[in-house]
Design brief:
This is Carboxypeptidase Q. The chain is an alpha/beta fold and 478 residues long. It is built from 17 helices and 18 strands.
Length: 478
Amino acid sequence: MRPSLSLLLAAGLLLTASSGQAQVRRKAKAPAATPAVAPAVAAAPVSDSVALRKIFDEALLRGESYDNLRYLTNNIGGRLAGSPQAQMAVEWGKATMEKAGFDRVYLQEVMVPHWVRGGREKGEIVGNKDKGIKVPVCALGGSVSTGGKLKAGVVEVHSFDELQKLPDAAVKGKFVFFNRPFNDALIEPGAAYGGAVDQRAMGAAEAAKRGAVGALVRSMSSARDDNPHTGTMRPATIPGAAISTNGADKLSQLLKANPELQFELEMECVTLPDEKSYNVVGEIKGSKFPQEIITVGGHLDSWDLAQGAHDDGTGCVQSIEALRLLRAAGFKPERTLRAVLFMNEENGNRGGTEYARLAAQNQETHVAAIESDGGGFTPRGFGLESDAATLAKVAKWSLLFKPYNADDITAGHGGTDIGPLKEAVHPKALIGYKCDSQRYFDIHHTAADTFDKVNRRELELGGASMASLIYLLSKYGL
């Protein structure tokens, strides 16, 4: 039966203000519906629209994500796996979930790497007559120390293929400078990151094979500034350092004028024995299908240069908030919900791997898993790793998210932490929360990733979007 105008209005497309003060804008005459819109409108249940409005009202009027993030970032700060700050964050996460009133809160033990940056990180371009130009650098995660000051010539490359074609004499005893920039023609910054990050991950290892003494890697960003971007690298026998984009441009320019210049690098990083740490798990038991689990999470660890606000403090507080919102709005989930703060995503993913191992060991049934690890910016929608039928089912809910501009539901990447679940327990969908990412890689893995870069409304809207998807998954399953 074709829905009446009153039913379409009740579906929430024209609801305004909070749910307690909602008003329906009356129209004298129904506008003509296009064929592309009418079927989607007809598919939106009234009760679901009202439920989502209730969730968003709770988030925008009484949300707790922002205050939780303020404490995590300002009182604990950077939380590299194995550090005392990481343990403080575990304790914070457990206490925050308990305060939220979840049915069960517990820890999952996991052994994690313990790499320490050290106090001294210096980089200098040395030209004619030993005249030096200081440039901002930072050690890549897992790098070895330089063992004091390390000075050598520099050879610039833009790809591994270019490195392989160089004669041994052009590489041996030198720094290999990987200077492939982001492809700024790409609309999605994540795609540009994916097209450049292999040089950070594997650059030092590949350079070591050719007899280089160190690797310098252009920071993973399209921003032109003096912030070096750290990140994990594969184990190598030579040091690997990130150089800021401004520093990389300067080094490249000077090399063209003087191929014989040298670079001096000093870093004191060290790898210590593995440390015991934990995933933090909060659970609300399902009322009808408690054996079916929906996981939502972010990673609790962060790099040590700043406070780890967008990466991934926002994902952690949003995951906790998503469950709190559902409880505060009075909903009783039909399926069991878990908020998981994963440990060690940045330099090992051992938390995500252990969570999946335990899920398989306990023969758990996971309907879906959601991850927020792209920053706390304005919500846009969700990306699904799933079969076509599952994607089509979830995409039908996009109309419900349209009033909140979070209706971009398409195929996409789920997330690093939830990735191991795919083979371990075969959930129907791995889902990545998508937000506006244009600014993300300006601060990603840098000293600029601080609390002041997070907007309260953007953060709370993201938590509400995640809670809304969880509400629908819990009600309808997959």
